[in-house]
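ping. complex inputs:
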Amino acid sequence: MAPAALPDAFVYDAVRTPRGKGKDSGALNTVAPVRLLVGVLDALQRRNELAADVVDDVIVGCVTQTSEQGSCIARAAVLLTGLGDGPPGQTVNRYCGSGLETVNQAAALVASGFQDLVIAGGVESMSRVKMGSDGGAMFDPPLVLGRGIVPQGISADLLATLSGITRQDVDAFALQSQHRAASAIEVGAFGKSLVPVRDASGLTILEVDEYPRPGSTIEGLAKLNPAFEVMGTQFGLDALTRKAYPQIERIHHVHHAGNSSGIVDGAAAVLVGNAAAGERHGLRARARIRATAVVGDEPVLMLAGPMPATERALKKAGMSIQDIDLFEVNEAFAAVPLAFMQRFDVDDDRVNVNGGAIALGHPLGATGAMLLGTVLDELERRDLSVGLVTLCIGGGMGIATIVERV
Amino acid sequence: MGITIALNEGVATLTMKLPGRANVIGEPLIRALAGAVEELESAEGLRGVLLTSGHRDFCAGADLEWLYGERDAAVVYQGSVALNQTFRRLERLGVPVVACIEGAALGGGYEIALACSHRIALDSPKIQVGLPEVSLGLIPGAGGTQRLPYLVGIQRALEHIGAGQPLRAPQAARKGFVDALAPDHDSLMAAALAFIEAHPKHAQPWDQKRWSFPGGVRPGTPMARNVFIGAAGFLQKKTAGAFPAAETALQVIHEGLGLSFDRGLEVEARAFAHLATSDQAKDMIRTFFFHRTAVLKHAGLPGVLPHGIEKVAILGAGMMGAGLAFICAKAGFSVVLKDVSGSQLERAQAHIHEQAGELGRLDEAARTALLQRVALTLEDEPIRGSDLIIEAVPEVLSIKHAELRRLQGLLAEDGIWASNTSAIPIGMLNEHSADRSAFIGLHFFSPVEKMPLLEIITTEHTSERTLARCLAFGDALKKVSVVVNDGYGFFTSRFFASYLIEGAQLVAEGHDPVLVEYAARAAGMVMPPLKVFDEVTLSLGAKAFTSRELVTGEALDLPGIDLVLRLVELGRNGKIVGQGFYDWQTRTIWSGLSELTAARPSETGLVLIQERLMLAQLAELGRAFDEGILNSARDADIAAIFGLGFAPNTGGPCAYADRYGLPELVARLSELAARHGERFKPAAKFRDMASAGERFYD
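pong. complex structure:
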């Protein structure tokens, strides 16, 4: 028996803050994470003229849920906006996939008919709440030893080694990310989603992404020392990978700060709803969510999750890789999108066309929601139809979402 | 310009002395400090710095002229950023810097001291230090919120900055706001030099890796979280949400403790710029600084003459008479306190002794001398030769007339007769005066030891000379004097009555009395109306209604007044008998009140009640203007705030009218008048201003 047709889940709007450098001197360091989130929620409400109490839920991705990002930051933010007391809030941690996870959950709730209008999104102030400061079950010694869990950078170097990706490859990719981000900023490709961060007086705190280094050169990148070599070889962490990859005699440590994602602060919000909600609130749908997928994968290599996640999403959508016009593959490390292109044999003129996290930064819990807006803006700019967003996730997971313009 | 540097054996003495009479923080001082620090940075062999003032005050805070006029948040923000940078350079010179505090160090002035390594103050209660910014609708804008928690602890810093109450030097030393006291200039300087010798490599607490916060509460701990939650509760209890500056201070202290020191300064600077350009800060600065200063100088009045008063007689030894006798004696006048009742005089004497006993700074001889300046008497004769007679007998015209007729002959030549009536027109009291040019109203407020206002009422007969001498007399008593024209209830009493009556009226209409009280507090009113009514006693209110009717011929036919009369009948006369609107044992609204009132109206709520309470007062303000009682908006705002506890956050009723908007006010008052009666009718003054597009203040 064929399943009854489910309602469509539409993306009505997507906004994000510019990303600030994730350290004490970063522009957004003075802005509490809850206020970053309030900023994008307010912007979403203002742009779409949403009345109070019309949003059914606010689901926010946030990885380091402690201190100022602890308790339930989603609900705390709702209470500081004009969205009313009606919308509840929940905070989601699926590591780097959190932001996209919220979009997928919102889509699932809407498509199932359980909810009508949901805000998805994410927030991470990496300058104020340090990565890893929440401790964690992933550092449980029996797990680390039993499965051979290693820090992500070593996984990234392992992925490069396994895929035959060289230092030259990752540096060249990093440089391209910088160049693409620089020209995207110059032509205003991010303008539609970007919401400046302002203080209480309306003075601008940050209005453009702060992290990019448009002046990067291949020579400069080549000079940087591999970040995970000492950890891998001298502290012996590479050895942990042998259990799963006995055939790899030596890991080539190719990643460094210049070809890995940047530590930044930022927030994003995406408005997802069914057709009826759109009509009721006078919203114009920008895209339909065609399929979502989240998968578990081998945890030592950890970062290869985008591949099976993409396969699953394509299968669910009844599409092939050729049907995708533009890809956003999160640049956690340069090897991830490079391995992705290799695996699916897609040209780099369809992948991360406006640069990615290497140039722009990766505010952990927010990135997925940001990338959804980025691909949507670019599809509209180029008048293309279908986009796929995918991210690798700690613990060996992957997530993907396919959107189609309407 | 503004700061001189003298170098002696590696110790630089920086002396702040801006042109004019005081060091205020504005562009000139910010620039001078930056220049001085730059010079110190390149000074050879520098071992330490002494920061002193060439004026009486160390530095009394921001240049309010500048701040009041500045509406651009970016400019204010940049000012703070520049000053912060200079302070950071000063504290990173690598040598100890000692603030030598020999005069007031308030607001930005105290923030300069906080950026020094060590603070030594003269051991004198005359020297005030601290961060009073919230009392002007501001927060400290040059690091005060960020540095103070390190020095005095998180909780104490929250309390101090949130309340905005300066400390006297001895107390400041006990609480850690200054590090040491010195008895005189020379020993202060010696102590400062000794500190420099002993601490060649001083680093500020916020620049040290580890710092043990006084009070034991460390940032980021569950204990700290509880302190902040507690502070939020305490603040709400105190302000009912009417003072955003204090709330901002809480936020800024909280955020700063979680950030690097320099970024915390930025958070503070942004918040400061936002508040400094807000209407509330402008209104509070205008009233509490400019208006208050102008009123203290009697600006706009014909002038002040020496009061020439040595002996003061006070008729009537009630609460007011006794209090007046005390403050007059304290100010050095020789006082005769007269009453017809011996027991009343005894109570007055006890009160005066008690008050004198509370003057902690007075030595025994001075206390005895003070008490000896008051003579209590049942006789008339001791009054003879008084330069000023203040009549404070019961508010009954015939009694007041009789006192005048019997005693005015005892005045010294050139003596002044003053009535302390709170409502009866002076023009009715002076009918039998031998010299109406020397007859005046001096309306003090209870408790007179604490309340700063003196409302002076002149008639068309009162001479400028009498007024000028009474202004000097008010100055001698350290009062803030406002001069108004004659009419029933003058300005303050009629204005205050409109508030109390509206509170009673709302209750009589069936609005929840608990909500009435909270609404007033949330609007910023210092005291809620029913509680005040109970404190002044309901029968006095009832008498005032009768007296008002007698004098003005206008009857106020309101259920609210009937309710008050009914409560008096039931023996619920107010706090003095333990029951009124409140049950004073439990300090809660009397549970039986609803049986005397209408049923709960269909339309009610905080916003509606608040508007009624505030706009009833504004309507009365308008009528006082129409009737020529008030000479200026300044006088109205000062009198309402300093005499009656009108919402300080508004800057006064005229400022409130401006913020409401005159056209909107007229429209809303007309609507309220149509629904609730003539007392809301917008005055011609408001209508004229609205149609001319005028405001009280630009």
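Residues 155 and 301 of chain A are 5 Å apart (CA to CA).
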